[in-house]
Design a protein that fits this description.
By secondary structure, the chain is an all-alpha fold. It has 9 helices and no strands. The chain has 2 domains: 88 residues; 61 residues, Winged helix-like DNA-binding domain superfamily/Winged helix DNA-binding domain (Arc Repressor Mutant, subunit A, Orthogonal Bundle), CATH 1.10.10.10. The longest helix is centred in the middle third of the chain and has 24 residues. The relative contact order is 0.09. About 4% of the residues have low confidence.
């Protein structure tokens, strides 16, 4: 008997002897596929991220990072509620990593319903613009300028670097230092 036939025969015998996985019913509140998970949750996660970081490029990057991080461990057979809870927990972790990279410290509090509702309604604490200007006024001119470009004018890192006539790498370092100093200034101010 040729080797290929013996191998096929042995594989067929092993397949018959191996226990078959048990099937379980998936509830009607489960997603049919990964595309449905993405479509149902992408807008909600993007709005949440945008409400936290305040600019489109970072919100898009963080939303993508949430889905890429959650893709492998998440079961498509999980209920809609479980998927949403897992994506929110993943978003919290991704956002904490973002703040750790940019501010040098973790900020992990998310009040999803309040943040999304405030974003959709356009509700902003009336003291926020004045507080932001007070913080920016206490920073060195270059720090204030990079933060204004990135977060108030929603420029990309590349656009901000071009405006400041510096390299993108230098703009990253400048933004990082500016955010750290702004956080220190904000801590010293009254809430």
């Amino acid at each position: 008997m040729p080797v290929a036939q013996r191998f096929r025969r042995k594989s067929a015998e092993q397949d018959e002897a191996a226990p078959r996985p048990r099937l379980h019913a998936v509830g009607a509140d489960a997603y049919p596929d990964w595309e449905a998970v993405y479509r149902d949750n992408v807008d909600r996660l993007y709005r949440l991220m945008f409400s936290k970081v305040g600019n489109r490029p970072d919100a898009e990057d963080l939303t993508t990072e949430v889905f890429l991080t959650a893709l492998r461990p998440l079961r498509v057979s999980a209920s809609v509620g479980e998927v949403r809870a897992y994506l929110l927990a993943t978003a919290r972790t991704v956002l904490a990593g973002h703040w750790r990279r940019t501010l040098g410290r973790e900020i992990t509090t998310l009040d999803e319903e309040r943040d999304i509702a405030a974003f959709e309604e356009g509700v902003v604490d009336p003291r926020t613009p004045a507080r932001a200007e007070a913080i920016l006024a206490q920073l060195p001119e270059r720090y204030g300028r990079i933060l204004r470009l990135r977060f108030l004018q929603a420029c990309s890192l590349k656009e901000a670097a071009a405006e400041l006539d510096i390299t993108v790498g230098n703009a990253k370092v400048l933004q990082h230092r500016a955010l750290r100093q702004a956080a220190q200034v904000a801590e010293g101010m009254e809430p």
